[in-house]
Amino acid sequence: MAKLHLIKLSVGSDSIESLITWQSSNRAKGADGLPRHITRMWPKRAAELLDGGSIYWVVQGLVQCRQRLLRFDEVTGSDGIRRCAFVLDPEIIRTTTAQKRPFQGWRYLKPGDAPADLPSSRQSEDSLPPDLSAALADIGVI
Asked: What Pfam family is a match, any one (predicted)?
């Protein structure tokens, strides 16, 4: 079991499908073809995160999926500023939904606080509308 995870808002995504579409684009991939998310801050607890950790994505106010963290690469932007690229496993794993208020940047997430993965038989399901998912999560159904 992982020692630590990250949680991050998927800004601009209105569904898991739109996150998948974005990560399939050339702009979201590194030279190795793997999806990556570039951020200003480098995780101080990188070793714990890379010991089986994932990034949990908050889409439309709900944690809905995760991706395994493969490594962290240093990248320098056209502005000359060094940043951290979270290099991700291309497989997006759907999770049970959990409401999450907006926050800036990313946060560490303890494994005990992470939503459970959906069973493999439900991984190919379309996402529920955000309002319905939020209502069901609020009453503890999902």
From this structure: DUF1489
